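Structure tokens please, single chain.
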Amino acid sequence: MCTRSSCRFIMVMITALLLTSICRAQQPAPSAPQTPAEPAVAPEAIAALKKMGGFLRTLEAFTIHVDTDTDEVLEDTGQKLQFSSVVKYYFRAPNHLRADVTSDRKQRQFFYDGHTLTLYGQRVQYYASVPAPPTIRETLELAAQKYGLEGPLADLFFWGTDEARLGDIQAAIDVGPGSIGGVLCDHYAFRQEDVDWQLWMEKSDTPLPHKLVITTKDEAQPQYVARLTWNLTPQLDDTLFTFQPPADAHKIVLREAEDKPESKP
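Here you go.
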């Protein structure tokens, strides 16, 4: 037999238990852990790259004037600096290429005449020549892999080939229209393991790249920016691609690389 006070205590306990049960019943069940969504690769962005690469491979001759800005990060302080350069490319299929590079800190010229690759430093008056393969792509690969010399915008000569490595792209988006130097372009953005990069491609029957931005994905995130001006109808003589050493130039041996290719000028 319960007294009035003991009955009141029992009722309070029953009410508390009921309220606890109701609250638990109203709480949502814990959700299962969600797997992060895979980055999206827009088919139209990849199709645009293939279209541009295919068009570049049809060109018999061109020149490009390239204005570049390159970020470098000081190792001791982490401060970011920017350096500018101008690159002039001369191209004639299948095996003639020249690049003149003038930057804030150096001048370099690259000559390839189908047989020999020559690197010439105008300010220091040194040059080095090595035998070269019969094609431009093979020569660029030799320069990068054996001698650590990576030409500026070397990807221009690999887009549209099996070496383009489109499979390395982890994400790709169509950003929308944009204008570069008065040229209407389509703006695309891509992501790979170590870099993010953006491309502005001419919106016409001549899908040329007019701007490229490469962002290295480390803590400082330095950038390389290139703006390209094209001439598809140049007059290019053989002598343009053949190096003739000045009387006061000194020939040296081109040393093989031990580490990664040098950064873009």
